[in-house]
Amino acid sequence: MDHDQLYPLVMTTIGHALDGNSTAAASSLMEIGQAVDENAMYGVCCAFAEVGKAALKKSYGDQAPDLNRGDMWAMATLKPEEARPADVFATRFIVAYANDDRDATLALFQSALDASDDEYVSSTAALLATAAGLARLALDQAAS
């Protein structure tokens, strides 16, 4: 699948997730996963993380960390031993991406890739769901 085919499918997948249509989002994500190599899939994960980053910036407004001043994003999660590994991956990936830490996003992606197929699929799906959840929260905040 080339970029011109992948881009609209990624946007459609994100749209399904934002709409809360998990069945359609999962189907689109499966189509992407079966059609692209690991390099393109890393790009897909970055697109999902971009949604999360934009949502965080929208939610925090003027209180958002200023990376130029050395501020950093951080998100509290359950203790890793109490959380699903896929959810821990998703949170860490979005935070690393929001902090412009490409070394960390690559390392996190590689660790997901090196895990079992089920864990890899769960991790990418959790990344999409977490980013969409952050975006819905930001939209709800803006509406109120």
Fold and architecture overview:
- There is one protein chain.
- This protein is mainly α and 144 residues long.
- The protein has one domain.
- It is built from six helices and no strands.
Which overall shape is indicated by the principal axes computed on the Cα atoms?
A: globular
Question: What is the overall number of helices?
Answer: 6
Instruction: Count the beta strands.
Output: 0
**Residue fraction in strands:** under 5%
Mind describing the biggest β-sheet?
none
The secondary-structure element order is HHHHHH
Mean pLDDT level: 93
As a percent range, the share of helical residues equals over 70%
Question: What's the number of domains?
Answer: 1
Which ranges are low-confidence, i.e. pLDDT below 50, for 5 or more consecutive residues?
none
Query: What kind of oligomer do you see?
Result: single chain
Taking the alpha carbons of the first and last residues, their distance comes to: 41 Å
**Rg for CA atoms:** 15 Å
- SS class: mainly alpha
Key attributes of the depicted protein:
mainly alpha; 0% strand; 144 residues; single chain; globular; 6 helices
Blueprint of the fold:
Layout: H1 3-18, H2 22-35, H3 38-60, H4 85-98, H5 102-114, H6 117-143
Helix pairs in contact: 1-2, 2-6, 3-4, 3-5, 3-6, 4-5, 4-6
Brief sketch in words of this structure:
The protein has 144 residues and is an all-alpha fold.
